[in-house]
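Annex B. Sample input.
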Amino acid sequence: MPDDPQRSQQQASHEQGHRHQAQQHGRGPHRQQAQQQQAQSGEQRTVRARIEVSSNRGVFMISVAAELADMHPQTLRMYEQRGLIQPQRSPRGTRLYSQDDVERLRRI
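Annex B, continued. Sample output.
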């Protein structure tokens, strides 16, 4: 079967589209070169900071505290009404639970 010039042109256009798409999604040759240069220089882009917070400082909003304690947020509100837990409050009145509060909720 002889080569069809129109089909070859379509196939080349299709392959070019895939290369363009790969470059857009960070998989192209320029991305690979940058990663190789970064690896050779020992350079790292990810920076992480660890912040130490006192275990009695209110830092978790009710939804997060409830998830950490494996409870429904309404249960935390009920425990507060009954005096079992006393979360701190932000200046705007948002309940803020500490790590100590979450541990206490797990024990209740």
